[in-house]
Amino acid sequence: MAVTIRDIAKEAGVSRGTVDRVLHKRKGVNEEVAKRVQAIADEMGFTPNLAGKVLARRKQPLRIGCLLPSIGNPFFDDVIAGFRQAERELSDFGVILDITQIKSFDLNAHLKEIKHLEAKHYDGVCVTTLDVQPVIDAIDRIAESGTTVVTVNTDIDSSHRLFYVGPDYYLEGKTASGLLQLCSKTQKRVLIVTGSFNMKGHQERIRGFIEGLQEHGADYVVIDTVESLDDDTIGYERTRACLEQHEDINCIYLTAAGVQGACQAVKDLGRQDSLRIFSFDDVPITRSLVKEGVITFTICQQPKRQGYDAIQKLFTHLMNQQDPIVDTITQTIIKIRENIEE
């Protein structure tokens, strides 16, 4: 038979209202009493009544704030589609999403929007943001205020986030190194064009790639590593400058957005036939460049599932309050010209 709040109250010698406040983390209970009640509940094997909580939740909205650096980056269109699908499916339970989109990786812009999330006192927040100490501190403040924080697409595992939904970026980097080694046995003179040095996922793709080449015993040199800031104009300018300065570059590793700009620089210099270019994700411009043969392969990560699972798991947590919830790692999918439409 399921343990009830009445059972816990009787065992603890307190009122059912006191038990309810403890189990739902509400204020107004002496700290020692709260610890004793929680210990008794745990010992008796109490689990929350999800159906009852859902019925109660229908009377008030469950508000989730989302932050994405998605302006100018079509990859996040599918993440947002996943968010919205989950929102539709959970609409009967009062789930409402507020999605804030910003451009690029400016620290002040991210801190400003995270502060706005904090001020709105959401039930939960879902963020894709920078892995730097000021952001970690800001996220921790939100979590300490009682709002559940989850990371989507790129992690900040040193923060007080509850769980992460997204790819294994290190594995993606190692996968890229293995594919490159299969494609070319000659010395690899590599230009790395990354999104931001402050995004954990981008850095993990680089680390996995380098360590993978080392494990393969590959003959390689990283000529330079530059940021595109997920911007095609910056990607074009910095890629072209490197190619003009180093005519011996024969591989370009694109770890994030800015793909169109970087590849346009290659084409404008007439270097597309002498370079191996590899990228991430399946967005329209990348798909076109793979079909054209400019990009040799692209590695994908199920962005719609990331958005969908993040909201669904956050909802489940907010209803059940059961910790811990494990991370969700999406699949690493390799696409070339022959399967890019699948």
UniProtKB/TrEMBL annotation:
Tell me which UniProt keywords the record has, alphabetically.
Answer: DNA-binding, Transcription, Transcription regulation
Q: Name one GO molecular function term.
A: DNA-binding transcription factor activity
| Entry-linked CDD domains | HTH_LacI (cd01392), PBP1_sugar_binding (cd06307)
- Gene3D superfamilies noted in UniProt: 3.40.50.2300, lambda repressor-like DNA-binding domains (1.10.260.40)
HTH lacI-type domain segment(s) = 3-57
Name the PANTHER family on file: LACI-RELATED TRANSCRIPTIONAL REPRESSOR, TRANSCRIPTIONAL REGULATORY PROTEIN
What is the name of this protein? LacI family DNA-binding transcriptional regulator
Protein source organism:
Sphaerochaeta halotolerans
